[in-house]
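Reviewers of the previous submission asked for a worked example of the structure-prediction workflow described in the proposal, so we include one complete record here. The input consisted solely of the amino acid sequence. No template or homolog information was supplied to the procedure at any stage.
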Amino acid sequence: MNESHNHSGANALRILHGARSLPPAEVVEALRPFLETMRIERSGDKLANASTVAVTELVRSLKENHAASNDLWEEAIEATLSFASEAACMTDIDKPGGWMLRASMPGGLVRTFYVYELDDNKAAELAKAAIAVTIGETIETVKLLSIHEFTDYGMKPGDVKQYV
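From that input alone, the workflow returned the following structure tokens.
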């Protein structure tokens, strides 16, 4: 799922929530960019396709009948809400979530930890508090990790876990 789908779905949802009071021709025109984007950038995503089908049916009824049933409105809103929610979650999953840290002892012993905290200094403090740090051991941030790298391990914000 790409960023334009995410943006387009969110816009369509805003339009659908406020459009019942608008004249049918205005609703059709307002939803046109969403339908064009979805047709140009076809995806195999079932929720995207369901939203596109539901909005297309709503627009068809508005064009042909100058009105649409409550069922058509509800189906378009529910399908687009599901699609927009999934798109928002998929967008967030690759955002930075925290740090991989390395605890190094003189003599070569190295331990690696995942710390679900974006601030590198706070992540180091959380790691020091969660693990037994010995005198002379250093803690350093190694790499910024995405949210899904933490959620895959069942971690929550603030968690520290040794990487093995």
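The mean pLDDT is 85. We consider this example representative of the routine output the project will generate in years two and three.
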